[in-house]
Amino acid sequence: MAEVLFYHLERQPLEAALPGLLQRSLDRGWRAVVKVGSEERLDALNAHLWSYDDSSFLPHGAASDGNAEKQPVFLTTSDDNPNAATVRFLVDGAEAAELSGYDRTVFMFDAGDDEAVTRSREAWKAARAGGHDATYWRQDENGRWSKQG
Fold first, then answer.
1. CA nearest neighbour of 108 among 132, 127, 90
2. 17's torsion region: left (phi>0), alpha (psi -120 to 50) or beta?
3. What is the Cα–Cα distance from 126 to 74, expressed in whole angstroms?
4. Distance CA 78, CA 88 (A)
5. What is the enclosing helix (H) or strand (E) of 146?
6. Alpha carbon 88 to chain centroid distance?
């Protein structure tokens, strides 16, 4: 069964939290696919990942960039996995048809969005009912993620 992680964004927006988690995935030798809720957010996130930190580089791409199979991190609005990722991130309201096909699925949801919180609770119940190892993560005052459940 897949590992399913739920990251509750309370202290940072997605744009601040996602790059660090993607970098940790790459540091572990994993490839990642990020499913975004809309094309507009995909374009904004794609641009943000190029410029979020002047001192680092996060290699990534989307369909518009071509060479999907060569991208360590691939951004999409669909359920495709063209870069053979083992980790899937679901952000900005994106949902998963099913949780199979990846070693790890990461749901990131905004604490200030009641609909996102409700969707995440439903996804948590579905993951647990499906026998997946589901964990819940929150940021502490120092910005570090800690496992809560």
1. 90
2. alpha
3. 25
4. 12
5. strand 145-147
6. 6
The whole-angstrom separation of Cα 149 and Cα 8 is: 12
CATH 3.40.50.10110 is held by the domain 3-147? yes
Q: Are 90 and 105 in contact (CB under 8 A)?
A: yes
For residue 86, the one-letter residue type is: T
Contacts of 93 (CB under 8 A, 6+ apart): 37, 38, 115, 116, 119
| CA atoms in the 13 A half-sphere facing the CB of 114 | 0
Contact (CB, 8 A) for 83 and 89: no
Residues 6+ apart with CB under 8 A from 54: none
Cα(73)–Cα(85) distance, rounded to whole angstroms? 8
Would you write out the chain's pLDDT as a tens digit for each of its 149 residues? Answer: 789 999 999 989 999 999 999 999 999 999 999 999 999 999 999 999 988 888 878 999 999 988 999 999 999 999 999 999 999 999 998 988 888 889 999 999 998 889 999 999 999 999 999 899 999 999 888 878 989 87
Please state the pTM of the whole predicted model: 0.93
Backbone dihedral angles phi then psi of residue 136, each to the nearest 5 degrees: -120, 130
